[in-house]
Amino acid sequence: MKILIEQSGYHLGNIGDLAMLQVAVQRLKSFWPNASVQIFTTDSEKLIKYFPNTQPLPPYGRQIWHYPLLHRVHKLPSRLVIQQWVNMELRFRRYLPSLVRSLIKFKLRKQPEQMRNFEAFMEAVYGADLVVASGGGYITDVFKQNAILAIDTLGLATRLGKPTVMLGHGLGPLQDKELRAKAKTVLPLVNLITLREKRAGVPLLNSIGVSQDCVMATGDDAIELAYQARKIGLGNGIGINLRIAEYSGVNLSLLETIRLTLHKAAKKWNAPLIPAPIDHSNYEGYVEI
Q1: Collapsing DSSP states into helix, strand and coil, what is residue 14?
Q2: Phi and psi of 223, rounded to 5°?
Q3: For the residues 250-264, what does the mean pLDDT come to?
Q4: Are residues 173 and 212 in the same domain?
């Protein structure tokens, strides 16, 4: 049994993403204890540290899969011609993946490192018995490029006849035309999609033609680890995680309102304020408090 896992944070610096990935691996291993599990990551050492019985798969080969097949066409002055060719390349990848694979290998014949990366990705998908997208909120407009890569990986797997599942997802918004079109093409073919919530996720999936027979609301997978680590007696602290980013809707003026409210509540209930950082990565324009 070979399982390939797409996941939200390739750098493995987001504790929430790690928790969801950990639950996914544990559950899959409970079904198939002897399964070989490959996970997309850019930090092989950290993956082996956290998940010693898995194999890292760098995402670079997948990027090569999306490179233009004929670069010269993309340099033509006519945008219409370029777009028509791009659409044709998408159809080639969708309906003739093995032919495209052979063409890319021919183009990479004098680039051994890129050839190794590309073949590692292709062998992982072609050899998989199950392709999984573990929990996260990465199928959304804000993370468009990552979302497209994840959806395209699921799409390639479905075209090859591989079972596919998405576990514990917070989907959307999907207002971007290109991303929504990708989702509408691929997600109805996914065998099982489990959601963090019903209010937004279910209507979104309905709108792109996903059968409700393939959808379940299971909640956030990370909660399972918190439940397992629970203490007998509850504390009285107030846990705080506040993300300031372009996409979070939190700005400095709102931060001041939240600060005053928290301090007022802490004083009233004599409760300590406990920081709960989630992401330990360094991103420009992104702060956790």
Answers
A1: strand
A2: -60, -30
A3: 89
A4: yes
Instruction: Compute the residue count for the chain.
Output: 289
Residue 87 lies in a domain: no
Place of tokens 């999306």: 66
Measuring CA to CA, which residue among 3, 1, 2, 10 is closest to residue 149? 10
**Residue 172 placed within a domain:** yes
Rounded-to-integer distance, Cα 97 and Cα 92, Å: 7
Q: What mean pLDDT comes out for the span 276-280?
A: 81
Which residues fall within 8 angstroms of residue 50, CB to CB, at 6 or more apart? 12, 18, 22
SS3 content of the chain, % helix, strand, coil (to 5): 50, 15, 35
Mind listing the pLDDT tens digit for each residue in 186-215?
999 999 999 999 999 999 999 999 999 999
Q: pTM of the entire structure?
A: 0.90
Q: Is residue 86 in some structural domain? A: no
Q: How many CA atoms lie within 13 A of 78 on its CB side?
A: 7
Positive or negative torsion for Cα 170, 142, 48, 157: positive
pLDDT one-digit tens code per residue, 42-100 = 999 999 999 999 999 999 999 999 888 876 666 666 677 667 767 888 888 988 999 99
At 91, list the tokens.
């159809």
Question: How far apart (Å, rounded) are the C-alpha atoms in residues 23 and 249?
Answer: 29
Structure tokens at 137: 């909120």
